[in-house]
Amino acid sequence: MFAPLVSAALESTALRRFERRLAGMTLLLGIVPATAGSSSAQAQEAEEFMSFAVPQSGRVVIDHVARGDVSVMTVPGREGRVWLDDLSGFDNWGIQGPDLVRFDETSDGIRIMTGTPAHDASYANLFVWLPEDVVNHLSVNGSEGNITVLGINDVDVVVTAYSGDVRVFDAARTTVRVHSASGDAILSDIGSADIWLMHGNAWIDEIEGIVSVFIVDGNGVVTGSNSNSVSIETGSGNIWYEGAIRDEGRYSLSSHNGDVVFYVPEGANASLSASTFEGRFDPSFDLDFLRGRVRNGILRGGEFGIGESGPPVSGMAGVASVLLRSFYGDIYLIRPGETMLGQPFCSGCFAAPSMPEVPPEPRVPDRQQFRR
Amino acid sequence: MAKDRFRDRLSDFLDGEVGDGEIDRFERHLEECEGCAQTLAELRVVVRQARTTVTHEPATDLWPGIAARLAAPGLVAERQVRARLAAGLSWVRRAGRIRRAVGGRIALSVPQLAAAAVVLASLSAGLAWMVGTSRSSVGELADGGYTAPNSVLGFETGIASGADPAAKWTSAASPALQSVWSGGDNIDADEYLALVARFENALFNAEPPLPPETMARIRRALVTIDRAIIDAEQALRQAPDDPYIEAHIASTLQRKAEFLQQAVFLTAGN
């Protein structure tokens, strides 16, 4: 929903400002033409962005091998644009001018690459503007730094990161996949999400489609969900799910040593299976009891029904299926608006994430909804 | 729901736990029901592997081995890998442990055993992919670029196809991957252990190597997952008949299998 704002800003102030800034960047002087012979990129004057063309329904792959952040946004028209900032280390390897960024044509699109694997000392922040309604697939691969994708819609987005946070905002018609070794994944207003994190937290706010999250070490937090298919698993971390429970939806939350908190809206009809080995099962409201699981005198879970018309049966029409698991942690069922007693989550889990360092304009709006 | 009734008791049938009068009914049903026959064949593979290793004593504590590996962050010796895998990863030994814990009978449900087969297929296919694509990846690296692996692996099969996340395990090894692995159904326990050892060696000895900090994170993640497996094992000793713990072990092993597969993605992307 912010794409138009971004585009408008790019058309006016931002472009002019970037042009002025680029004019003062001695490192970029001499960027004429971009990778002659292997690219559809258009040669640009030194004072302007590097630009490139993307075939209709084409794929764009961005490989930011250099260290530094990557920001991807949209721009009107049919040409994409690239801008590098805060460069260092490239000149040590004799890389300058057109070699700073490579544009390689592929069979169905273009690959944009900065740095090479051997030049691990190189650093640059990379900004890419993609033409609207042209690209149908975007892959962003970053080595060390944050990756931000803003306002990219109707595109499959795949982000692979070794170190750094991944942020994808304002992509309600987009399927986002994140594959990261270290860093948080922060997604807001997106279509579907498939997240795989080794070490980091997943924050998803406002999502309509499928949610699939796997984390080895970190928390999984989903708020504002309207999904009917949710799977969140973490080995070491807490899980928080707050959103709709759709009829016949499937919701599976599992943690090894963290707590699981599941919001149940009034009026939801669901078949619930909850189980914890060392923790306790703690619903804040009455459930239709089907079968309990008690160990050492503590309720550890069981099979329950949620709904006003008696205990529903799994698989029955109109009934959602909810599976909650934790080995060491507690499982909480609460109603929207209720507060948690005992503060089961680590402090800071819901602190607002820091905002990406994108160019002065367009500025990413402050995402207050992340604040808790 | 006669089919379900038979299917749910296939494990009993396999272990000779059904009465004489039922054997004929089972066998007639198996002649008619292709699904049950297929499931039974898969179960036989898993159980056969379990029987080949059931005499091995399980490691009482995996932690020393893991700690030793952490203390030596360089190349992972195959012996160490094999020792850890033998204790911590192999479904074969897991089945053996559970067999002992519950009094000599494998008490896993059909879905759990089927999951074990998926783990095997996933790992096998992942390794086959790794071996099959490493050369081209290196070639492209020499040209200054690399191929993002996500577009050709099972990673895309979940959401892209609109599949439910709950079905992810069955699609972890995509059809393309399965097609490059021809021996997944026929490997025995030793082959399996060697396969997984090679898989991890490929991960830890990748060329070009992953950044040291990424390698350290992978090791820490493996420790986290192994710790979860150990926790569940210890819990199973306390409550050997707890189906939740069995399910937890099964799911944790599945997660470990997926973790290894996804970690290889990172290696290839490097």
Explained architecture:
- The complex is a heterodimer of chains A (372) and B (270).
- Chain A is mainly beta.
- Helices cover 6% and strands 49% of the residues of chain A.
- Chain A is built from 1 helix and 25 strands.
- The N terminus and C terminus of chain A are likely disordered.
- Chain B is an all-alpha fold.
- Helix content of chain B is 70%, strand content 0%.
Concise account of the structure shown:
The complex is a heterodimer of chains A (372) and B (270). By secondary structure, chain A is mainly beta.
Which short descriptors sum up this protein?
heterodimer; A: 372 residues; mainly beta; 25-stranded mixed β-sheet; 1 helix; 25 strands; elongated; disordered N terminus; disordered C terminus; B: 270 residues; mainly alpha; 13 helices
Helix content of chain A: under 10%
Uncertain segments of chain A are: 1-48, 341-372
Q: How much is the radius of gyration of chain B in Å?
A: 20 Å
DSSP E strands of chain B, number: 0
Radius of gyration of chain A: 24 Å
What is the number of beta strands of chain A? Answer: 25
Structural class of chain A: mainly beta
Largest interface: A-B, 53 and 48 residues
Oligomerization state of this entry? heterodimer
Strand residue percentage of chain A: over 45%
How many helical elements of chain A?
Answer: 1
Please provide the ordered H/E string of secondary-structure elements of chain A.
HEEEEEEEEEEEEEEEEEEEEEEEEE
Secondary-structure-based class of chain B equals mainly alpha
Instruction: Characterize the overall form of chain A.
Output: elongated
Distance between the ends of chain B: 51 Å
Low-confidence stretches of chain B: 49-192
Largest sheet of chain B: none
